Amino acid sequence: MLKKFIQAILAATIALASGACATLFNAQHTGVTIVTSEPVGLKVNNDSIEQPDTSMLVMVQRQNKPLAVTAWTDSLVKTVQIAPVNSFAYWSNIGFCYGLGMLIDKDDPKRYSYPKTIYLDMSNNEANYLDYNPDGRHRHLLKFTPMKLAGLANPSFELGYEHKTGKRYSTQLLAGYLLPNSIFDMSSTVLPEAKGFTLSAEERFYFKKPAPFGPYLALEFHYLKSRYKDVWNFGVANIFADTLHGYNNYADTFGIRKQTFSYSFKIGYQYIKDRFSVDVFAGIGLRYKMIKHTDRIKPEDEMEIPRHPNFYYITHREGNFMTVSMTLNIRIGYTF
How much is the pTM? Predict the structure, then answer.
């Protein structure tokens, strides 16, 4: 007994000195919540469990072996094998003693863990499972679009809300408050008087996993209304092609009132870990612009066309016209 006690103290001392986190902090057993689409009989490894409800927390031993889960109803039997993964405590060794703790944890079964949630769809006997509950807490998502703060056109502070409306469908609503300038371009030609907002609505279809997980297709309607000032040269429009014209165009500070209506087809992927989400997407569509200039010195004069393609000229030119809209962005969120 004394020998075993001394060995345990020695092992703990070595583990502590080397930062072996799994050996020190992981218990021999870990909790796994097994969720089923209907009440079932349940066996985990070789232990039968009474499960009158569709969710139960079971304690399983940490080991380098698949966790065998069998569930059955009156009409079918389903068995899945859940592979073990390295626990957070094991990976945290990287931050201590240059990872030396991994050498201590290497052969310790306490380095392993299993998904916190295992979901079984009892409508079929396929040997598959989900590591989340598709009907659980992820029905609501609050989102933020950080890159909108640095947009070249219409930088804004944008917040969104996505709500799961069906097994593979969700609806997303977003609203943005326009900023005077991009946070990375405080010398922008858009003057501080800029005001406006954006609204958008989006319907999503998740085609591989239940909403709101994985790849999706979406249709989005987007509306923008803004009012700001700009500085541009006016007079003769195509002055660089008019060799007989002496350059007498002039700079004018003028107002711009803009409305746009956009319809876009999008494809994206949403990844959710615990309660945090990352939503990456790209889209293409059509945008109808209605742009009016105000407070011009000579409203009859034309905007000077730049020698080379210019983003701000395209954005600020007056008129009602249709353009192609393209988007590529990322949103981060919190689910509940």
Answer: 0.64
